[in-house]
Amino acid sequence: MTYVHKKEEWFAYAAKLHDLGGMLYGEADLIESHLGAADPKVIALTLLCRTMSHVEGVVAMIDRGLVVEARTLTRCCFENLIWIDGLAKEGVEFVKKITGNDYAYKKLRGKVLLEWAARQDAKPLFEEKLQAYLLGLETTQPKTNPISFKSTADAGVLKDSYIIYSQLSSDAAHPSAESLSRYLTRNKISEEESILTMSALPKPENGEVLQTLEFACSALLGICVGANQIIGGLPSGKKLAPMFDEFLTLRYRNFAATKDDLSEA
Fold first, then answer.
1. For residues 107-132, average pLDDT
2. Domain residue limits at 30
3. Does residue 15 carry a pLDDT above 70?
4. What whole-number distance in Å separates Cα of residue 62 and Cα of residue 55?
5. How many domains does the chain have?
């Protein structure tokens, strides 16, 4: 089977997963509880919707040859996966962590903005209001630290997901020696001489494209499982086991791919 066929299979599988996510969402039909938007079931569905959108973006980026951008979105999928794992394990307590995470970052951003304001010659109009707002947060909201993706992953059942998350951070999402090296190639023109070439749109390796699709689909599949579990089991949840079997088949083909397969355009 050629690289193109493998890629199209992953595209088709991603579309089926997206449809399944939509079925789970449609069947949830939640009645608003006293928790409102802080209900773990609501948060689970928002994570599902967010990941479905991300995977659509991954497919679109790969279709345009933008594997770095596709892998950056895939990293977002794994952030969602780690969070839904924490949500499935801790329920309302993890929702409290999410809220605390939001306030912690608001405090950090506010502090940075005030530091910037203090360096300006003219006092910004918003400075006093921002100071009052941050003071209010300090007095009404408990002191919390931002959620650690590693700690959350280590405490759940998807510990290995952090390994993929950190790899995608290094080779795509963040500027690093590894991610920047994508844009440089050294071509040997003689025994003594080579030319360094820079490309604004480097051609992705076929194997990495397939791996990116596999990673993105695995994250969405995991989030479908997590959302179904948190909501309490939905009719379409019965489709998850066959989808997992199909995923394993496609992943096996990725591993079994020969160099000849992956070099075909």
1. 91
2. 3-259
3. yes
4. 11
5. 1
